[in-house]
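Researcher: Next sequence.
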Amino acid sequence: MEVLGKVRVIEPTKEVGGNGFRKRELVVTTEEQYPQHILISFVQDKCDLLNSYQVGDQVKVSINLRGREWINPQGEAKYFNDIQGWRIEKVNQSAPVGAVPPPMQAPTAPFEPATNFNEAEHDDLPF
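Model: Next structure:
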């Protein structure tokens, strides 16, 4: 899955727990009729992917949805979701002024009609 939008927040990398687990959060604001602020977590070695991005950059983030169950002390099941990013890339907001799109290429060979078509074999319509 992918999220497209503008970088709103990039948090610094945080170490969670005593085992060296690293986490970094990014907020991307979608650009649609009702913009959404999507919190995306990058973990471990993926934290460094955010180093070359800044607030305002137009990005496409590849994500995975993660879910887990937790049983509280009263024995009730609680469920949590997380959006984890694993790739991020800048998206051009628009083509440079005066840019010309590349020309369309003509087909290399003309389309050849089927010559082995037998209409009697293919007349199996129910009406």
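Model: DSSP finds no helices and six strands in the chain. The longest strand covers residues 58-71.
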